[in-house]
Amino acid sequence: MEENQKRLEQNKHEKPMSFISMVVITGLVGGIVWSSLALLAYFFNFTEVRPNLILEPWALGDWKKGWIGTVFSILAIGVLSIGASLLYYAVLRRFNNMWVGMAYGIGLFLLVFYVLNPIFPGIESFWKLSRNTLITTACIYLLYGVFIGYSISFEEAERNVREEEAKESPVS
Amino acid sequence: MSKTQNKLPIPESLSEVESYMKNRIGLEDSFDLGVRKLKILKKNVHFYYVNGLCDTSPIVQIVKELVGINNSEKLSLQLQSIVENRIVHQSVEQVKTMDEVVDQVLSGLIVVLVEGEGIGLVVDVRSYPGRQPQEPDTEKVVRGSRDGFVENIIVNTALTRRRIRDERLRFEIMKVGERSKTDIALGYIKDVANPDLIKVIKKELEAIEIDGLAMADKTVEEFLVKQGYNPFPLVRYTERADVAATHLLEGHVLIYVDTSPSVIITPTTYFHHLQHAEEYRQSPGVGTLVRWIRFLGVAASLILLPLWYLFVQNPDLLPEALSFIGPNDKSNIPVLLQIFMADIGIEFLRLAAIHTPTPLSTAMGLIAAVLIGQIAIDVGLFVPEVILYVALAAIGTYATPSYELSMANKIGRLFLLITTAAFHVPGFVIGMTAWILLLAGIRSLNTPYLWPFLPFAPKACMQILVRRAVPGSTIRPSIVHARNRQRQPAKNG
């Protein structure tokens, strides 16, 4: 009975998160949310590129083209995205505005679609992609960049404010 | 207080006071101003009042008591203190300048003046015309309290105080408006609310320079957040006392404006406008479901029409499974024009419904539903799909809990429609992106508008997606910068 009681939501106590776990969660959620949106865009033929792209360089079974492959690739993008957000955290978190996040997103887009293009046989070379595909994917990367960048920079700014407050009034 | 010295002190002679009142506030010109003259212990005693704003029965009591002095007291030099002692009311105050006398009389209090003293006794016998608290029309719930705010600031603060009997609940009152002298109260809990926010709001309110606040809270909002032509609501209004109390406990600062039944909640984000008291009146599971369905409705009100129009333009975008979508009949008018006409038609109806008296609105509904909808299709003006999607978007608009937000989303929808029509897929995608970025860029009282989604705050975002159990949510939302983050005392465990 006691054990049961402890597991109920009502009896949990929330603690404020540490910064690094917030960064990791933001990366994971950002990757999953925006790649799901990309999947939706692929479904409606806005873009020729689907999230399954991420599994292409690896020789896996046929399942990687089915729905299991889609789920796995969204999760894989989520995990990769943790790396992207940690990188932002390490390098760019001091800049508290949205433009840096946008630039970061566009940078990632160029990295994947221009620089790393050769390792994905499934997508055409950068200049042969259709206009719709380029614009849609660029927009999704841009929003993803803002999501990661703005969140981390905002949290950094908030934490600084809180620390200063704690210095001024050392109550509790 | 140096200002008081410059103002005219109350003259000792009552006839001088009377002529001042005649010149300054039009005693005898205005019928609602009055003076009652009594003779007590051979001295003149005058009462100034505004009829309609004060309650007659305590005044009659006071007059009875004062006239009784003639029978029971001997002649005395201490008339002023005898009179003060005999005023049978709990709220009596002394004033020394004519400005205060005028202000108080026009607020509905009575002022008692004794010959040769130069002191006014202000008695609070105000009784403003107003209604009883009733359920607000815009925020109904199935269960829960039915007492909404009214047009009287005193009743409104009392309704809040009844829910939070905390010693640290503060209502700071100030008068704004050169002519209207409207009361504005700033409500917050002292050890919870962010002191910087309180300071900012107070400064903004004190800086308001206007002759009158006839439109009350809306005018105050425009001075406070300076939104210009940005259609998105930057503060939230509520007419429910329980919603107001909940936000106070979360650390928000509330602004009560006299003569308005809505209270301003600051700071506010986009997602505050998507919540409704009803969710907190159901179990957490049901509340969550209600909330998700509501999100769907809001999303439909925003993107359904542009998305459908995109598929009308480019049917090749549709996946195999959805290829049945699209206008099946040939239409005589371009679909875009049809959408705009139907959407504007619904807007006509909505505007008409606001000021149509109830007996006529039934007839209006009939005309709208039967005549316009069906017959517009029969004569070949609209294709049925247009009616369907425009109606869905309209219902989505009505499912938005905040009226202000639903209007702003409507503008967003029209904007997306135009970009889609002009640039097809890139128009839709870039339009959506621009819309999200614009929203993310708005800051209302230093709060990012799309918080907790953008910037992302994991726990607060969970609170938005899932209506959490109240005993589990022990931390106040970080965006209000509460001084005390724990809602419930943390037990060891």
From TrEMBL, chain A:
<protein>
    <submittedName>
        <fullName>Conserved membrane protein YqhR</fullName>
    </submittedName>
</protein>
<dbReference type="Pfam" id="PF11085">
    <property type="entry name" value="YqhR"/>
</dbReference>
<keyword id="KW-1133">Transmembrane helix</keyword>
<dbReference type="InterPro" id="IPR024563">
    <property type="entry name" value="YqhR"/>
</dbReference>
<keyword id="KW-0812">Transmembrane</keyword>
<feature type="transmembrane region" description="Helical">
    <location>
        <begin position="98"/>
        <end position="120"/>
    </location>
</feature>
<feature type="transmembrane region" description="Helical">
    <location>
        <begin position="20"/>
        <end position="46"/>
    </location>
</feature>
<keyword id="KW-0472">Membrane</keyword>
<feature type="transmembrane region" description="Helical">
    <location>
        <begin position="66"/>
        <end position="91"/>
    </location>
</feature>
<feature type="transmembrane region" description="Helical">
    <location>
        <begin position="132"/>
        <end position="152"/>
    </location>
</feature>
From TrEMBL, chain B:
<dbReference type="GO" id="GO:0005886">
    <property type="term" value="C:plasma membrane"/>
</dbReference>
<dbReference type="GO" id="GO:0009847">
    <property type="term" value="P:spore germination"/>
</dbReference>
<dbReference type="Pfam" id="PF03323">
    <property type="entry name" value="GerA"/>
</dbReference>
<feature type="transmembrane region" description="Helical">
    <location>
        <begin position="386"/>
        <end position="403"/>
    </location>
</feature>
<protein>
    <submittedName>
        <fullName>Stage V sporulation protein AF</fullName>
    </submittedName>
</protein>
<keyword id="KW-0812">Transmembrane</keyword>
<keyword id="KW-1133">Transmembrane helix</keyword>
<feature type="transmembrane region" description="Helical">
    <location>
        <begin position="415"/>
        <end position="437"/>
    </location>
</feature>
<feature type="transmembrane region" description="Helical">
    <location>
        <begin position="360"/>
        <end position="380"/>
    </location>
</feature>
<keyword id="KW-0472">Membrane</keyword>
<comment type="similarity">
    <text>Belongs to the GerABKA family.</text>
</comment>
<dbReference type="InterPro" id="IPR050768">
    <property type="entry name" value="UPF0353/GerABKA_families"/>
</dbReference>
<feature type="transmembrane region" description="Helical">
    <location>
        <begin position="292"/>
        <end position="311"/>
    </location>
</feature>
<dbReference type="InterPro" id="IPR004995">
    <property type="entry name" value="Spore_Ger"/>
</dbReference>
